[in-house]
């Protein structure tokens, strides 16, 4: 090796990146986030009673976390790209442990709900940098596709484990132990993140976009609050004011992003069919699939009389198969683009949800197994494809921002999906008083919600097909798309 020229600075030491450790830590933290969010779904009523919360408090157990996640996902992703993905991720997992500890030690319902909001904020700081860390550790190609498929499987694994874990622990050891157990595990993951992750960030950080941060956080929070309060009556003045205020604040966010020199979200990305497929696919995934499935355990308890633990077990059939199919989705990458895979996944999910039609108080839950299985397979394909699109549809140095935008769309869609499901499922009125008539009425409403969810899945699939056709037209006009390594080199110049 020739000596360095006189007066030159020595080259900085190479930073060792550990792809396996990075994937293990980010996937574990992602699974923890979804476990924490879904843990109360199968035991909402019991948790609300134990925490001395009323009917509206029960709604806010899930909604509080949604508010925190949706308000700060995009901000966390942008901050991670500019100031360090490992730094934001490790802070997020540490805050997650603190939020779960606060939930476990909460003296009453108000503090418990505040802990759930804090949990959402921490979850945003975990989810947004995760895909950026994975994409930095795994170069474009089969290794990255496989890693993103494993990350998508972690999402499904958390959804599968969460309701069963929450119901079991709540039944055997009380609602406080649910948060206590998650606090201990997440503290261990935070320690692993600090030791094993490698820092990465954009070479030229962007300036802070304070007005974008404020308008987006306020807009999503107010909108989700309106959707939550609307479940008890959409015509109430407070609900109308919240919904209108949320829409106006999000419109203000778009205006701000169009005006500032370095926006948190570059609106020019919406001219890209891939970015439209990523954000639109995530929105319809939340709206048609996550929203409906989040409320399905409650519907199963009301119609079939299942316990919270049994209802969580039924839901695990859907989410468990999504883990398996996400791990195998990499085999589709050689045959389908990520956008086409989103369309295929949403189509399969729609067919599976349509198979849930015909729920009645009489037959056992096994009647739902085929539809849940088909929807689970589609969900895994969809999760893997959305992870691919989240990082491939944006410049390489903005990968965490792309993840934040994708997950913001998913969680906003989830909030709207739960509101739609609750409204539609409750639209049928019992013909006579009594629990049997109420169960039959709820079954009728559930069938309506099933059809709405399936139709929304098919609408999302049609949007993805349109984006795929636009991609094909763009390639015809501009020529073949640059290879992924070329795109990354160009993005980091």
What does this structure look like?
With 493 residues, the chain is mostly helical. The protein has one domain: Growth Hormone, Chain: A (Up-down Bundle), CATH 1.20.1250. Helices cover 76% and strands 0% of the residues. It contains 16 helices and no strands. The longest helix has 44 residues, at 435-478. It is globular.
Q: Which percent band covers the strand fraction?
A: under 5%
**H/E series:** HHHHHHHHHHHHHHHH
Classified by CATH, the class is Mainly Alpha
| Structural class label | mainly alpha
The largest pleated sheet is described as: none
Cα-based radius of gyration, to the nearest Å: 22 Å
The 3D shape can be described as: globular
**What do we call the CATH topology?**
Growth Hormone, Chain: A
Number of E-type strands: 0
- The CATH homologous superfamily corresponds to MFS general substrate transporter like domains
List keywords for this structure.
single chain; about 500 residues; mainly alpha; Growth Hormone, Chain: A; globular
In short:
With 493 residues, this protein is mainly alpha-helical. Helices cover 76% and strands 0% of the residues.
What is the strand and helix layout of this fold?
Elements: H1 19-38, H2 44-50, H3 55-83, H4 85-105, H5 109-137, H6 142-173, H7 175-196, H8 210-229, H9 237-259, H10 273-304, H11 308-328, H12 338-354, H13 369-392, H14 399-425, H15 435-478, H16 484-491
